[in-house]
Amino acid sequence: MNRLPGSDLEVNPPMSLVTKTAMPGMTRDAIFQVIKSNVQKVLFDIDPNLITVDQSLVALGANSVDRVEVVMYSMEELNLSIPRVELHGIENLRGLVEVFHKHLHPNG
Q1: Which one of 10, 55, 80, 107 is CB 3.0 to 4.6 Å from 1, fit for a cystine?
Q2: d(CA 88, CA 90)
Q3: Per DSSP, what are the bridge partners of residue 2?
Q4: What stretch of H or E contains 11?
Q5: Entry pTM
């Protein structure tokens, strides 16, 4: 909680401003869960059971803006900054998990 300057009021930042910091030992499954939650946030009417690592965002019904939002939200939550060129050619969520994992575990 933060205090407003010159006030006794305490405020919490909006949830959209709160970023989780990725743990160095984050597993591929944990990374997938972050991505999955962001797919659900962007494609709010999707059945969560349809979101698997072997699905592509296109197959799940995501348009180009949706895909950018899922990747952006996930990278933000994982505290990652990845050049767009490294994201080119990813065919499914497993590929996205692998790229994120590589950046969270640069030494192997």
Answers
A1: 10
A2: 6
A3: 11
A4: strand 10-11
A5: 0.78
Contacts of 96 (CB under 8 A, 6+ apart): 35, 71, 74, 87, 90
Alpha carbon dihedral 64, 67, 73, 79, in 10-degree steps, equals: -110
- Structural domains of the chain, with CATH: 18-104 (1.10.1200.10)
Give pairs for 42-50: CB < 8 Å, separation 24+.
42/66, 42/69, 42/70, 42/73
The total of other beta-carbon atoms located within 10 Å of residue 23's CB is 10
